[in-house]
Amino acid sequence: MTNDKADIGVYGLGTMGSALALNLAEKGFQVAVTNRETEWIDDFVKEAGALGDHLTPARTLEEFVEALSTPRTILFMIPSGAPMDAMIDTVLPLLTAGDTIIDGGNADFNDTRRRFEQLSGTGAHFVGMGVSGGEKGARHGPSMMVGGTAHSWTQLRPMAEAIAAKFEGAPCVAHLGPDGAGHFVKTVHNGIEYADMQMIAEVYGVLRDGARWDAPRIGQLFDGWRQGPLSSYLIEVSAAALQTMDPETGQPMVDVIEDRAGQKGTGRWTVIEALKMGQSASAIEGAMGARAWSSQKPARVAAETILAAGAVQGEVPSQDDLADALLAGRILAHAQGFAVLAAASEEFDWALDMARISEIWRAGCIIRSALLDDFAQAFRGELPHGQLILSPQIAATLARTIAPLRRCVGAAVALGVPVPALSASLAWYDSMRHARGTANLIQAQRDFFGAHGFSRTDKEGHFNVNWPDLNSPNS
Ligand code: 6PG
Questions:
Q1: Which domain does 455 fall in, by range?
Q2: Which end of the chain has fewer CB atoms at under 10 Å, N or C?
Q3: Which residues pair with 174 in a beta bridge?
Q4: Is residue 242 situated within a structural domain?
Q5: Which pLDDT belongs to residue 60?
Q6: Is 102 helix (H, G, I), strand (E, B) or coil?
Q7: Is 193 a catalytic residue?
């Protein structure tokens, strides 16, 4: 241990906090560390081995704050709800002007906006920072999405860039905007993560239930997709998981795992916030719904015998079709996520840079994939109406893959295999490519029963119609 003041403090030595503290120490920063349960601290420093020289353990909050060089940078890795609010109240009196406190958890961006506001005027700064990549990412290179003041970013930047994942040498961290911008972008990252995971699971479902393939065989197919346009961390994870055997039973591991998916809520927030802004991230909602239904296990077990499937008969799609369908679905789900980001940027005046967001998602985070590099280029190029799907390169990939997506969704429907996220993405694509949709009838219905009015195709203005009286004997 040195007597120098520490560059940064990490409060909270759980999985993510310890990993980030060790990552910072490894990059040569002096890190003050503490934890609510003080008995964890010594063990943590002991287990850090040689990196222990870069750690300054503190047993009280006062000692911890005192150990830091000013202006202070304090990273809190604690539960983001009430504990974060209580922590702010406790630590604020100990801080001086220019200090920055960072919430590195998966916080609701509405809370982050409120906390940012709470600190403004106190001299201290609040940063909401999304951290993606799980424990390994935090330890060896996460992707980080920062929201806060320019002052905080200047303070944090050298450390954040040093510990971040690198894509061809470029650090996967950026200051994305003020207040809740970082946590909002992380929320949408997680929404896309849900959709990406679900679409892979849907392809697995078509092969398992439609073609009766066993798990390792599906895993081998996914292995082959690890190179090329489908290359992604989640495909890699899925390929490896499907080929892992349970040492106890000798069965494929996935076959002995209950089909009930958990969630901590961030994917759900994406859908909620999208709806609040009058948007719809339907592919993400499809994935959310699938997780929700998965937890209704007893009802599904009963339904399997009560509910008839109807005539289920269909051809299992080819492997090439499935690969292309997955690519199209993933592009559409990402495009919906970016559309939600664009709406939030407008609503909260954040000026989010979609190209930068794509760039910092190219490495370190859970949704890292070859596609993100294509998206970064698309956002830097010509983009009609700001819509990712209208970029010439992306539209060309969709033109090639949409027929396979249509065939796969059609086949899954015929086989009775649910594909809620893939089909939602296709429905969105088809809605978007219709210059004339069917909302004219919705407007007629609204005017019919509620005199809500409508605009006409042939002249300016707001119109109502004397619709037929359904109660009149002549109608
Ligand atoms: C990441 C992950 C990470 C985590 C979440 C989502 O970016 O590293 O998104 O934040 O996996 O906890 O998990 P749920 O599936 O439980 O919502």
A1: 439-475
A2: C
A3: 145
A4: yes
A5: 97
A6: strand
A7: yes
Query: What is the pTM (predicted TM-score) of this model?
Result: 0.96
Report how far apart, in Å, the C-alpha atoms of 57 and of each of 46, 61, 67, 68, 409 are.
11, 11, 9, 11, 56
Among the listed residues 193, 273, 285, 359, the single catalytic one is 193
Number of domains into which the chain is organized: 3
Q: Are residues 170 and 301 part of one domain?
A: no
Please list the helix, strand and coil fractions of the chain in percent, rounded to the nearest 5, in that order. Answer: 55, 10, 35
- CA 165 to chain CA centroid, nearest Å: 17
Name 447's Cβ contacts closer than 8 Å, sequence gap at least 6. 453, 454, 464, 465, 467
Report the residue among 80, 106, 357 best suited for mutation to probe ligand 1: largest number of ligand atoms under 8 A from its CB: 106
CATH number at residue 325: 1.10.1040.10
- 33 in the same domain as 146: yes
| Cis peptide bond N-terminal to 252, omega within 30 | no
Q: Are residues 408 and 376 in the same domain?
A: yes
Last residue of a domain, which of 179, 203, 226? 179
Q: Does 3 reside within a domain?
A: no
Rounded CA separation 158/454 (Å): 55
How far apart (Å, rounded) are the C-alpha atoms in residues 78 and 472?
Answer: 66
Residue with CA closest to ligand 1 atom 11 = 134
Tell me, in angstroms, the distance from the centre of ligand 1 to residue 143's CA.
Answer: 13
pLDDT at 1: 44
Residue 182 has pLDDT above 90, yes or no: yes
Q: For residue 59, give the CATH number of its domain.
A: 3.40.50.720
Would you say residue 1 lies in a domain?
A: no
β-bridge pairing 125-132 and 143-147: antiparallel
Residue 2: its pLDDT value, please?
45
Q: Which residues contact 276 (CB under 8 A, 6 or more apart)?
A: none
Q: Does the beta carbon of 238 sit less than 6 angstroms from any atom of ligand 1?
A: no
What does the pLDDT read at residue 475?
59
- Could you tell me if the CB of 30 is within 6 A of ligand 1? no
Looking at ligand 1, which residue's alpha carbon is closest to its atom 4? 134
351 in the same domain as 270: yes
186 assigned to active site: yes
Residue 243: phi and psi, rounded to 5, are -100, 5
CB 382 within 8 A of CB 282: no
